[in-house]
Every structure is written in structure tokens, then in C-alpha cells.
């Protein structure tokens, strides 16, 4: 073993947060606001904070949720509702700098494994410095995994017959070259999800032509880029109160749309098709290109700010082809219908690779944790894994709404443990034979490909992976921390006064 690989003395930290993206920064804010006496650090594999919003650099990258709910409750968002990636990244940098969180981030630190010891009531975390190759050992009382559920270092590209024959350039959006010049080029974007519907209008007009090649259509809705009601509320009520009421409005609006789609899928389908038809030229084949075989919100619905995709289709700078790929050719793609698409650049907007907990291998008292055998407790902990928390946001609403509630509950849990002198907290299944189902009830391709590598969920609280914000408000913010499925132990700690166990006065949603 070289000197650079030799483990150094173990540094101890109260709470170790893995990931400096939107979830990690949020977790750090709540932790240092509610528990300033606790030391924490954020470990980030990459060399910059921002997570997804620093990683993806493809043209037009933007949110697919309104920023009044995708942003933090504690930091008002004051620009357009559907925002570009650079503005979101600037917002995250500002949030981190305002709280001094940026000084707590350790870049190029990749967690390779974490081992829990019940006798020591702590995690020992093995870390690799990816910039130097140095190996470090850290210990912590709590491990908080805030890295989401997909791989940052590798996007998903399915096997395409003959792909090696193509003489042009093939690009995955997750690895967009900074110097890519597509002016005057023929571009084919393979895919129909949020990335594809963002790329197509962003590249149209600069490229010679952009074709969105989809195997299956997606539900697409135009939304205003600017929320005029939000602007009015901010003007009348002021910056913070206006923002809080805008969040309430948008939370209710998101929930109402989702409930309508779930309860009346046929009506929702007809309404979406009517909206699409109105935004497209007369005679456009809407049923061919905008009529998915599944119900609305079985997969995440795509939004296009100010209808920019429909505008590109209407002015003929872009087009949609719904077909299957037979093979790549030297000059483009040959389709199952016999049609050929010529291209200079092919963009494979074909999705993500799911990776649970950033690929960290957990062990508990010497036994490896097999994630598919574990069940999520309140959507934030794992059965049989002590002093461990993770954050996964909503799939049917703004990601950050869920993360905020999880962080609030985590801080209340720490309060409860302080008050009762506990040092260990572990969810345990009271019924080992409880029926389980996949962690995420979501039909997106990237979820279906990786679902067998994720933990499971139960069929009722607290083992349910809720996607309902109002239900989570009750469970995570208002209900007691105590639960018959949550086991506490207190080998060494001394009780301290409790603070805010029932969290009853939240002005922000």
C-alpha cells in the first residue's frame, strides 16, 4: 500500500451528509438551524456543489416543476416559475453561501462504504479522495444520504443495432461536450421525456433541423414560464409572505391536477389532447405523436414553458417522429417503418441509471445490508439499519417538498433522542411477513430498470413511501416521533431538555 492509500486517523463528526445537491444543502440548513450544537460535514464526489444542476449542461436545461415549490421553503424564489438550470444553480450557491454551508462541503470525497457498530453507536465511513487517491476514515453518529437515486457518472443508453457504423457524433445529455457546435447541423434526439422536450426547442432554430424520435409518446402540457399570481402576491404581501402563499397555491394546484388525473384518467387524457391540438397547426397528427398508451401521471408529465416545443413544431424548425429504431446507418437511423432519418448529431436522451444510496455498501455489525431486503420507514429510514437516513423526493410533484419534510422530521427525531438520552434509533418490522411492493410506484423506464436494486415499501404507514404532500405533513411534521416500529436504545447518553418535538408553528408550507 502506497503512502497516499494508507488510512489516516479517524475523524469524528456528529452528522455526515453525503451529497451537496439540492437535498444535501437543504438537510444542512435544517440541521444547523435546529441543532447548531451538532457538527456536520457534507461529502461530495464531484468538484462543485449543486448536484444535478451542476452536472447537466445540455442546451435549455430547466426545471420541470415550478421553482416556488421546487425551491426551499426557507429561501424565496423571485424569478420565473419554470427556470433555467444556470439560475437554479446560482440559487443553490446563494443558499449555501448565506448559511455558510459551502464551507462545510468536502469536494472530491467519494464514500466507498459505511460500517455500523452497535457497541460504539457510530458509523465508520470509508472515503476516497478522487483527486488524490487518498483513503480516509471518518466516523459519525448519523449518516444522511442525500444523493438521490441515479448514477452521476453514467447515463443510460440502450443497445442500438449498428451504432458503431454512424459516422457523425453521438452525445448523451448527461455528458454534454462544452464545445459542441450544432449550428446548421441535422440533429436527431432519441427520447420523449423531460430531457428530450427541453433539448428540441432549445436547439431548434440554431440547428438545421431537430427531430425528436420517440418510441412512445409522452403527455406534454404547456405552462406559463412566469407566474403572474406569484408576482402579485409578492407585491401585495411582501417577499416572504408572498412566497409562502405562492407555495401554498402551487402545492394545492399540483395535488389537484394529480388527483384529477388519477380519478378521471379518460377526461384528463381528452383535456390534454385538446390543449395540444390548440397549440399545433391544423391537421397536425396529434393522435400519432401525443397520445401515450398509459394514463396521465402513470409516468411523470412533461411541461414546456410558454409552449416552446409546440412553437418549434409549428414553425417547422423541429419535428416529431414516432417509430422504432431498426438500425443505425453511416448517415443516421433506419426505422422499422422503412423510413430513414439523416443526422450529423444524434442525442441519446434515453434516461438515467438508477443507483441506490450513491452506490455505498452498508454493513451493520459486520453483516452486509442487502437493500432489496429492507423496507423504507416513513420514506426516510431503512428497517434494521440504525442511525441512517436517506432522502428521495416526490415523483408526482416538486422533489424538494418531500425533502423539506424529511429534514424537519429528522431534526425532530434528534430532539426526541436528546430529550430521552437515546443514542441509537432503528426501525424494526413488527411483522416480518408484512406484504411489500416496489419503493417507487412509477412506470418510468429508468425506475423499472433499477427497481430490483432499491429497498421496498409496505402497504400502509409508516412503511408506505407516500407521494402525498398533505399526508406527509401530518405524518412527518405534525404526528409524534414515537412509533411502535421505531426502537431506541440508550447505552451511554444523558437526557437533555427537549425542543420542538411536535413542531406546531410552521409559517411556511
Automatic annotation (TrEMBL):
This is Flavin-binding monooxygenase. One of its GO terms (molecular function) is N,N-dimethylaniline monooxygenase activity. Keywords: FAD, Flavoprotein, Monooxygenase, NADP, Oxidoreductase. Its cofactor is FAD. It comes from the Bacteria. Residues 486-509 are annotated as: Disordered. Belongs to the FAD-binding monooxygenase family. It comes from Streptomyces avermitilis. InterPro entries: FAD-binding_MO (IPR051820), FAD/NAD-bd_sf (IPR036188), Flavin_mOase-like (IPR020946).
